[in-house]
Amino acid sequence: MPKVRIGANNVKLDDVTWNSLRKRTQDILHDFRPLGAKQVNLRLNESEQEANLPVFIDWIALPSVSAKLAKRSPEPDIGKYRLGEATPSKVYIDGVKQAGKKIIERDWTCDQLLKEKRVESKLAVQKAGLMYQKFIGVIAGEKAAWRCVGLLTISFEKKPKKAHLDEVEKKMRQLASWPENPKSDPVKSAFVNYLEQVFILGGPLLKGL
After folding, report:
1. Which fold has domain 4-200?
2. Interval 18-61: pLDDT, tens
3. What is the DSSP letter of 34?
């Protein structure tokens, strides 16, 4: 099966591919739920491009969150509705730049931070009351040519306590195939292997990994 090309407002997934992708995002949410997570979304860079233009690939939340949003939107599945949507994002740029080094956080209860949201942003997570998010750059590719190919986001109602937050970050690093230390090579997760099999990936080369 040919790999899927990622383009702004142009991502075509057949039913089999969509169902396999959704299963993986559901599994991620299920894995993080005991730590307080209530929503997960994945954005990937455009295929064979180095510019940081985020393209939505999936968006999934717990039923209680989806029910809140259903009162505000006629769209029953935000993930399907936003598939291929490309909206520039400061936090995306920050997350890509820090791939392999730092997990980005946003506490949207801060009015000043909320101002960085563009008018085009649907603010879906904030409308559902999920005001704390962690963002991690996803690393893929071959040795000496590692790229940050996108951003995985985990959302919470509020910032988890330190013990849970440490576990959240550990799991996120493993999912995103970060190196265990600055001198080691990234170890590809099953999730990153899946993305490489399904999509033609793009993104900036990561120097120093």
Report:
1. Beta-Lactamase (3.30.450)
2. 999 999 999 999 999 999 999 999 999 999 998 878 899 999 99
3. G
Report pLDDT digits (tens) over 53-89: 889 999 999 998 887 776 666 777 888 888 999 988 8
Alpha helix (H) residue ranges in the chain: 15-32, 63-70, 78-82, 90-97, 111-114, 124-127, 162-175, 190-198
Nearest to 73 by CA among 128, 19, 13, 118: 128
Dig out the tokens for 102 from the structure: 């730092």
Q: Does the predicted TM-score (pTM) go above 0.85?
A: yes
Which letter does DSSP use for residue 33 in this model?
Answer: G
For tokens 């849970």, the residue is: 164
Question: Domain-by-domain residue ranges, the chain?
Answer: 4-200
Question: Is residue 147 within 8 Å of residue 23, measured between CB atoms?
Answer: no
Q: How far apart are CA 84 and CA 106, in angstroms?
A: 23
